[in-house]
Amino acid sequence: MAKGKDVRVTVVLECTSCVRNGVNKTSTGISRYITQKNRHTTPNRLELRKFCPYCSKHTIHGEIKK
Predict the structure, then answer these.
(1) Rounded to whole angstroms, how far apart are CA atoms 51 and 59?
(2) What does the alpha-carbon distance between residue 17 and residue 12 come to, in Å, rounded to a whole number?
(3) Tell me: the pLDDT tens digits for 2-32?
(4) Tell me, what is an example of a GO biological process annotation in this record (predicted)?
(5) Is the pTM of this model over 0.90?
(6) Cβ(53)–Cβ(25) below 8 Å
């Protein structure tokens, strides 16, 4: 029995405020998280509030392409 596309896919979440500000002058990187999402229940791009160690606060992390 052949399986179709996986329902659960791995996605990368990236801090939107670090990207928008061109990375803070004091920080040396961009915060990224790896998580999974269900393709059927969440067909659009995923956005979650996560902690960014470079901004030192909770910010919106959006899904990016690999």
Answers:
(1) 6
(2) 16
(3) 566 788 999 999 998 886 665 555 556 788 9
(4) translation
(5) no
(6) no
